[in-house]
Amino acid sequence: KVLAVAERLLAVCREPVTFEDALAEMFAAYGLTMNFEQYVLVGSTVRSFLMWLKDSGRLACQFVNSQMLWQAV
């Protein structure tokens, strides 16, 4: 399941996206309902995935107009 989530996140990041956009896409993809608790829990998980994918060289980030954008490599 971890690899499937990673692949889905890479697909979301085909074009440069902010964390918030990536998170919203993941919520939609998995049919989750956004509330504060889910935002914190799922947000933390998505951040961990983003860093893991960046560390493994499959994702890059850049800063544009004071926003961090994530993009698949």
- Got a strand count? 2
Helix content range: 55-70%
Structural class estimated from helices and strands: alpha+beta
Estimate the strand proportion.
15-25%
Main sheet strand line-up: 1-2
Distance between the termini: 22 Å
What report would you give on this structure?
The protein is of the alpha+beta class and 73 residues long. The chain is 58% helix and 16% strand. It is built from 3 helices and 2 strands; from the N terminus they run H-H-H-E-E. It has helices at residues 2-12, 19-29, 36-55; strands at 59-64, 67-72. The protein has a two-stranded antiparallel ribbon. Strand 1 (59-64) and strand 2 form a beta hairpin. The radius of gyration is 12 Å and the shape is globular. The model has no long low-confidence stretch (mean pLDDT 97).
Please sum up the structure shown.
By secondary structure, this protein is α+β, with helices and mostly antiparallel strands.
Give the helices and strands, then pairings.
Layout: H1 2-12, H2 19-29, H3 36-55, E1 59-64, E2 67-72
Helix pairs in contact: 2-3
Keywords:
alpha+beta; two-stranded antiparallel ribbon; 73 residues
